Fold this sequence. Notes:
It is built from eleven helices and ten strands. By secondary structure, it is of the alpha+beta class. It has two domains: about 70 residues, Arc Repressor Mutant, subunit A (Orthogonal Bundle); about 140 residues, Endonuclease, Chain A. The longest helix is centred in the middle third of the chain and has 25 residues. The chain is elongated.
Amino acid sequence: MIIKQELVKRIKDYFNLNIYETKVWLALLSKGIASAGEVSELSGVPRSRTYDVLESLEKRGFAITKIGKPVKYISIKPTEIIEKMKTKTMNDAHERVKTLSELKATSEYAELEQLHNSGISPIKSHEITGSLKGRSNIMGKMRDLVENTEKELVLCTSIVDFEDKSRVLVPALEKLYKNNIKIKLALSGDPERVRRFTTRLNIKSRQTDNPGRFIISDKKQALIMITPEHSEEEMGVWLNSPFFTESLANIVENALKNSQNQ
């Protein structure tokens, strides 16, 4: 059996294996049941290393040792391995989230906050700006701005972008509604699509022709997208500048009022 190098590379990345583990596993899959010598011959992995690799694969659930002599190994169905990996990934993620959630109650977190506050206090607020790259970083900052709004939130985006980020935005907006915090939501795009989506979620919005995408929190902080909504990598600019942000909020509010009066 000739194992294609391109397949080895792809499988290695998919299943988080090293080169030897990948070659040995593929060789074992092709036989179903095989000895270390047979696997070594098929995979091209040195026999001295094959035993260690098979033992590693067994610990990770990719193979089973067959009882009897000579010692042979049984391959596990790929679909079974995928399900095991999915379960493990979910459990690891759950434990990680739990650990992070409990972090705020620790003394270490208090020290982190103290370091941050002592470092940022000498900086003038209008000097604090930052760039964000990547969807996960953008969405994380959006969630932070929405959830920490105390008085008023202005959110302007397209219906396509709003639908795409609704998993993060909608739960955060619902919390603001429950706390009677003022929300001004302006959506551009197909009016019928806007109506259907906001009606289904019971969220009030205004139609706008403004193609811009930004969030303004309490007229103090703003996150402004600087790339088109279909860009391969999203980029945004975060500003903590009450002067600029309040001016931007006033411009948006006047534009919304004028559009309603037309």
